[in-house]
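Methods: example folding runs. The two proteins below were folded one after another, and each record is reproduced exactly as written to the output file, sequence line first and structure-token line second.
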Amino acid sequence: MYDEHKAKRVINFIEKITTHTKGELARKPFILEPFQKEVIRDIFGNVNEDGLRITREAFLFWPRKNGKTNFLAALGLYLLVADNEPGAEIIVCAADRGQAGMIHEIQKQMVLQSPLLMEKVKVYRNSIVAKDGSFIQARSADADTAHGYNAHAVLFDELHSQPNRELYDVMKTASGARRQPLFFSISTAGSNKQSICYEVYDYAKKVRDGIIEDETFYPHIFEADAEADIQDPETWRVANPGYGVTIKEDYIEAQAKKAKALVTYENTFRRLHLNQWTTSEVRWVSDEDFMSCAESYGIEDLKGRACYAGLDLASTEDLTAFVLIFPPEFEGEPFKTLVWSWVSEAAVDRRQGKSGADYNNFIANGELDVTPGNVTDYGYITNVIYEVAELFNIKAIAFDRWNSSSLIAELAEEGLPVEPYGQGFASMSPAIKQLEIWLRSNQIAHNGNRLLRWCVSNVQAKSDPAGNLKFDKAKSSDKIDVAQAWAMAVGIWLVKHRTDEDSGSIYDERDLIIL
């Protein structure tokens, strides 16, 4: 049922007692915008027969400069002193001490600017404490521990910034003894679709769309459609509930112009101001382009055919990837891709609990093999490559000359055509650009390998002044080894294609597609 009085009580508290703390509105009453009042009415007004809130968890997905932090700060003060919860523990969570401290500082200023709040609470450096022992305390993911709380409310700011899911999981279990606990997550879009934030975002959309029924979960999502024109003011308005008020029109117009002028800023603009998830700071290929190349085929369909391979050997934590590409044999057929990948048993264990994809999912799908021990077992991999070589006519295997090992020597001794392949701009740029063209024009196919998809989604490419490209492992959002091996396979095909006079050119029979 709906209790209008309970909702108005929260709105009145915020608008009559709390204030803005910065800028032109500093010290003026915090007057809520309609979309903020909507959230309060939905969460605090909907109660069960006992008068307790139905909502237990809320996810607010708003772009930057739509008043997220001030809204969260004011709600925290209400929950501290006016929610009728004895000994309330309000925990403000953020990715680091700076972000957590930002909310706490706003709350402290709100208290210091309100005589009524000053009578009810005492402000300390790291906490705000009420006379009945209730308190607000800030916690960050880089703190030593977050265990031991009996939280009445948890307020998670910028959930997408969390380095892993540990703090989220700990705080989710911290309120079992409360009558009407409230777990608030508020965030802008991020760039890691394997994160806890994307997991919550995905769940929230399914609840909103009726795919999942969960009356205790409240989603409030503002984002631009993926296909929307990012230069259209209507797109800005749709994505930003505070458009024209909390975020000025001239500001977002300037940011849109910057995104148009600087390709490297486009993803930042999409993420921060249109609330669109992106895959990396600098796009290489989109997930849509990648998935448009998915086809159904397997090893049996390609037995005996000529192919070219890229072999990316692992360091301690990396994946080892062996990727084959098969040139077309008839008009209209795309290049086809097969992938073998390995990781050490210890690396799987070390991955547990970290932000990003869970290796166990790829292992369960048969897309990633585990070798025993602390490091990747090259002997095991060598035997698999021998088996693969019996199935196909491997013309060349490209490997990184600076990260070679006894494995390469063994393959050479067995007569396999291993060839060193540079990892710098000169060698990788032709391969990366060619692979991108093929992906965007559906001239290369893959069979839906999810590990390959994940690695491609992580790629961040960088360019030199001449416009040459290479993958940047250090700045990519996570592992890219399988994508690297894929590009190397394309690169060695290009080398052979250009140097073997009797091999002919695929473009002798196929029109060149220019993008």
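Second run, written to the same file directly after the first:
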Amino acid sequence: MRCPEVKLNSISSSNFFTSLRNTPPHRQIKILLIALAAIGSVAFGLYRYFASPKKPNDTPPSTSPNTSSILPPASASPIEVRAPNTDFLQTILNHGEQFANSASRALIVEHEEVKYCLWWNQSHKAMNIQTHQDFLLESSNNKLGIKNCGEGRFSYLYNNSSIQGVPVSFPDEIFGLFAGKLEVLDQLERNKNVFDTATLRIMFNAIQGKPQHITVKNSHGAPLREAVPLILPLGQVNYAMWMTQMESPASNTARHLIRGITSEEPSASKSFVINIQKLNDYALRKQTNKLGLKLNSEGTIESCKINNQLIEAIDQYLFNSNADWNKTLTGVMNEFLKTSAVSTTPSGALTVHPLAITQIPEHVLHTIQWSHLLVKFLNDDFTPQDGIDADGLTRDLLTWLSQNLLDGSRSRVIQIEPSTQLPELKDIFNSQQPPALKNLGKLFAYCMTHTQKRAVTGRVLPDSFFTLLKEMCTIASATPPTNDQTLEAFGKIKKTTENGWLFDYVKDPDTLLTDNQKYILSADCLDLQNPDQVKEYIVETWKPRVNAAWMVYKGLTPTLLQTVRSLSAIDLSAQIQGNPFNRQEIAGKITTTSTEPVIQEKTQWLKELVLTEDEEWVKQLLKYVTGNSVVTATTKIKIKPHDLPAAVLPKSHTCFNELDIPITHSTIGTDDKTITDKKTLFKKNLTYAMPQTAYDCT
């Protein structure tokens, strides 16, 4: 018998039970069974839904269009961020690209037993910081990207999603460690001349060839050591220096310690060890007061031992300018150069190794006899080079020497104030600075009296310095400038300084000041109603710079004073330093009298290169051809042909400002089938011929 159809959704609950009572009993049972089964199914489903555990990443299906390809996955909870130390971030962004410019040169620091990597992402123009483990796995987890937005503002990406600060999981200590390491690397870069590898190499050669004997003996009168390769005095203490050369797998330990990267595959190469020790300790075979530096064949320091103990913190013991061993090694190297790399002949000619110019320019300047200046450069074994000085070598010396004297590095005697680029003399009773500045005046005097030699220093000082020098020559005082003279000297260059308006205010306190000028005065705690206080501020700030100009004036010969007074500061600067960089002027100096079509064509190419290549390339060309990195009013660059084989590179003669060029187009560089354009090949060969520095000391 077929059961009647029951439509539950069409009847109320009261009607349902009324109908059920009027139904025969056997049908009531069937209906109740069906109802109980339905209720049980619903109850079981609800139980399974609420009782079963959920996965953390379970999310309800989205009803919106598919956006998974353009939006990052939703996070279970927002990243907790904080404001970082902006000084640390600024240091990291200032130096990070230079010293950690790719993932292969990442820096590594460790904080609370967790390692972190820092590297520059060129494609995103951002610094990345990531845990070392995720970095090795090339994962995007735990990765923070930082961009500099200018004006002290930064933007951040964490795991490739934008956030409003740095995650709290990245404490400031991590950024501080990276900033500190980058500052050390920057210091090392700026002071790299202190540990010039070429100096170590030529010292090695000298030690091998010139053993010296010592007389230290034991209590019985017997010599404790018969010989030591080299003895170098440093103040009241003598140091022994010796080296050993070895064949061994040379690891890059120290370099990688500095860079923050470890290497599992050391490469085999020649290396040698330079040892420096106090002479008495050396003689007594002690392991005290001893420095050992292991270097590879390129001269790069690989490891450092102090008293035979390997030192990992090389930056602390060796590269820190305040460290004792830094001062000792620098002093020993400089003493070696003073005794071996620069001298004068009985006739007054100067013999000098190029490293003495870069390492101890003040000593070279002091050694020069200006009345008999002829220059002979030395090879690494201190034998004379072949070049004969017909003014070209003198120009080489003066330009190179001036650049090193006034490069502003911390190791120099003459200190340069960074914002104005002017020399400073803070203590006129200093034992080193006044003599060095006075000798600089003698160099300037030589340039002024030897214009026919085109002897100039190159553009090493701003024109404002020569304004101060003119003022000192006008005053012609035998004593240091007074406060009033300092104020007047400042007034002469007020237009070239940022705060020149201070001079006008001191002279006329009724001068109307802008809000910004008032703010500057208040920021420096200066009373607007007290012009004398502003005057004291000017004098205190500018006294060292005016004193330096006065000391240079003391080095000029009296016969030049009238000439200095008669010239404008710009003309005086050009006479001593050469003309400012001007492409059109330099190109106009290039001439040829040759009728050879190839030479005329290459002369035109050379002019075009001067007009289009970067400034450093043009200066290098000038140095290669003339000995100067600038031109003077009388400079002429002469292009001459030579009929040597086409494979010969161009050749310069600095004494005569000449450049010899083959009369046929060169075939050098065409074997690789990558250069077919003759002009491009000419530039390549000329660039190859020009030394990267004035002298190759390798």
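Comment on the second run: The longest strand covers residues 237-250.
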